[in-house]
Amino acid sequence: MSKLSPIARISIGLALLTISILLAADAIFGFSRARLEAALDVRQKFTESLAIQLSVLLRNNDIDSITTTIQALSKRNDEVVSIALRDARGITNVTVGDHERHWADVSDDKSTPTHVQVTLYNGSRPWGKLEVGFTPLAPSGFLQVLKHPLVRLILFIGVISFVAYLIFLRRTLAHLDPSSVIPARVKQALNVLSEGVVLMDETARIVMANTAFEQRVGAPTNSLLGRKLSDLDWTVPGTSLAAPTLPWSSVLNEGGKQNQVTISLEIDKDSTRTFMVNASPILDDRGNMRGVLSTFDDVTELEKKNQELERMLRLLDASRGEVRRQNEKLQILATRDTLTSCLNRRSFFERLEAEVKNACVDALPLTCVMADIDHFKSINDTYGHAMGDKIIREIADALRMGLRSVDLLGRYGGEEFCIVLPGVDAGKSMEIAERLRSLVAATFSRSRSDLLDRPVTMSFGVSTLDNGTTDPAQLVDQADKALYEAKNSGRNCVRRWGDIQANDVAYG
Fold first, then answer.
1. Sheet containing 494-496: order of strands
2. CB 197 within 8 A of CB 190
3. What is the C-alpha to C-alpha distance for residues 334 and 440, in angstroms, rounded to an integer?
4. How many whole angstroms separate alpha carbon 234 and alpha carbon 486?
């Protein structure tokens, strides 16, 4: 019983009180006793009527008709258990049913609700008795008791009254002022607080709400008391989505506390307030949950500022991204050749100096390659500068395909390109330069209707750090001299500064 709610316990008490009143009324006014007396009267009249009929038949000594009559009446009346005619000598002449067993304990000349006796007359003198056994008026077994009208009435009144009282009390108490049980000084103390405070019972119905909460939600006390706090329009902050979990519901369902939970309340279509909510259980002396205390700190303005700050941060990030993209574009414009996207001359020399410095510090090989398009002036004069520019772009793409990601490709000027191969020694440098030359020659080996009908080739000059120099400008100059040697050797070939120096070849 202790696990039932107070409303359920009160409803049970009221139902039992109603049953008690019903039984008291029956005891005073004799409703059930009157029914019993009526049933006895019916049985008495039934027996007397039967006795009159049998007396007529006895006068004619018609035993067969007597037997047929009492058998027919016994079958038609379910309350009749047995019937017998007993003469003045005590001898049973006619019987229906197991009369001797049913009539075993009946005293002479006395009738009861189940055993009725009437004197039979043959003419004017007594002949004997008519004995009729009836079923008990009061049931004896459990199932029979349940069939008794008074028991059924009590059960019906008990169940219906309990359900009716339960529904009535729940609806009534929800509209009463439950905060009246809270001392006035407690209310005054809570009303002083600037944050909203709400007391709820174990069903999350509002028992008390302080002034701050009423002002924040824009609802008077009489409209809040008895309502479930969860029925208000709580949403996820910054959205119109309903809040999936509410802190006070979590406390009631799971126990424990809920701290610093941010939720929003939609006041109307144009107004929403955001609260930082804390919820704690209210326990009785036995540790049973009796309700929840929730506090509501209005952080609407703070939330707006946070949202504005987040918006500004997003704009700042977007502007930073745009600045970064613009800087990257400027970096490309500042470091790349606009025609070929190769490193321009200034940027190339900056990178070359860094690569030479790293190679000298780490004692690693490094190769510099100068490349020049053969007979390019003739191409420009014959086909125009637009065609010349297109050929330069095609050659830059071909060279880029033959290089590694760590290699440097720069447009030195006009139709000249300069290449830096970090980690490549003298032996490997000629192989790479030759592969680049073959790649360019293969690209323009056949007639190109979109370019020109003559082959395009390149000459290459190679210089490495192991030639005795650590100066980037001198390294490029050596590769340039090797390029001139390739030009003088018939073009479309590769020459290395080390071989030229060894043969003491003069360049002009």
1. 408-413, 416-422, 366-373, 458-464, 494-496
2. yes
3. 28
4. 83
pLDDT digits (tens, 9 = 90+) for 431-447: 999 999 999 988 887 54
Location of structure tokens 């040697």:
485
- Per-residue pLDDT of 15-40, as tens digits, reads 788 888 877 776 777 666 666 677 77
- Residue 410 makes CB contacts below 8 A (sequence gap 6+) with 337, 342, 343, 344, 345, 347, 348, 351, 417, 418, 419, 420
**pLDDT computed for residue 1 by the predictor:** 39
Long-range contacts of 18-23 (CB under 8 A, 24+ apart): 18/157, 18/158, 18/161, 19/154, 19/157, 19/158, 19/161, 22/153, 22/154, 22/157, 23/154
214 to 194, 204, 220, 466: CA distances (angstroms): 11, 17, 6, 88
Domains of the chain: 6-134 (3.30.450.20), 178-298 (3.30.450.20), 336-502 (3.30.70.270)
Q: Enumerate the active-site residues.
A: 415
Task: Specify the 3-state DSSP secondary structure of 117.
Answer: strand
Task: Give the type of residue at 484.
Answer: Y
* Identity of residue 71: Q
Burial of 104 (0-12, 13-18, 19+ CB in 10 A): exposed
The sign one gets for the Cα dihedral 52, 58, 62, 66 is positive
pLDDT reported for residue 480? 94
Closest CA to 416 of 488, 489, 348, 499: 348
Residue type, 6: P
pTM to 2 decimals? 0.42
Residues 6+ apart with CB under 8 A from 210: 187, 190, 191, 193, 196, 197, 198
Contact 344, 336 (CB under 8 A): yes
State both tokens at 9: 């316990």
Tokens of 99: 């009369």
Amino acid at 334: A
